[in-house]
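Is S-adenosylmethionine placement plausible here? Inputs below.
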Amino acid sequence: MLPGILEQTHEWVSERLPTGGTAVDATMGNGHDLRFLADHVGNAGRVFGFDIQEEAVTRSRLRLEKESLAHRVVLFHDSHEKMKHHLYSQGVLHIDAAMFNLGYLPHGDPAITTQPEATLDAMRQAAEMLHPGGILTAVLYTGHPGGQTEADRVLMWLEELDPKQYQTVRYQILNREHAPLLTAVCKR
Ligand code: SAM
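Reply from A.M.:
I modeled the complex. Tokens:
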């Protein structure tokens, strides 16, 4: 079988995020991607996480503490639109990888979801901050209210990114209803 969406996301990120590298989880949620990033960068690496829900920050922190990875991460209870502001204040101007997993917090309030304007603002900041060879991944969901609109806006942005600076791709299981869509941006 070919890899599922989350497996493929982690594979693409693993190939481009070096040990000792710097990564961002723009939507921490339950902290699964954050844990993956913190594990991958090693003790010399740094990972910055964002989420607007206190519950997500707490769940993520607990997950990292349980696996003794908390010292590799800095968590912000704030919108990913403030990414540049917070990273610059930590002295970080460039990143190797940024992960966005859109939609709502699993086992949380399904009415609190990512919003197209904030998502695109944050994605623009992350794409700009990527080192050459760095990667931004975004998993898009269409099964919840507003999800299709957000996915369409992200796809439109990806299609219009300057091909001289970025390569953008998509990956999706086709024979499944409302299958999530993995998209990625690589900086040349
Ligand atoms: N990557 C997560 C994981 O591994 O468990 C799952 C993320 S979940 C699908 C989406 C998350 O995005 C929710 O926890 C939600 O609170 C968060 N979110 C929504 N709007 C946001 C924003 N403007 N900035 C940061 N996080 C946001």
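Short version: The chain has a mean pLDDT of 97.
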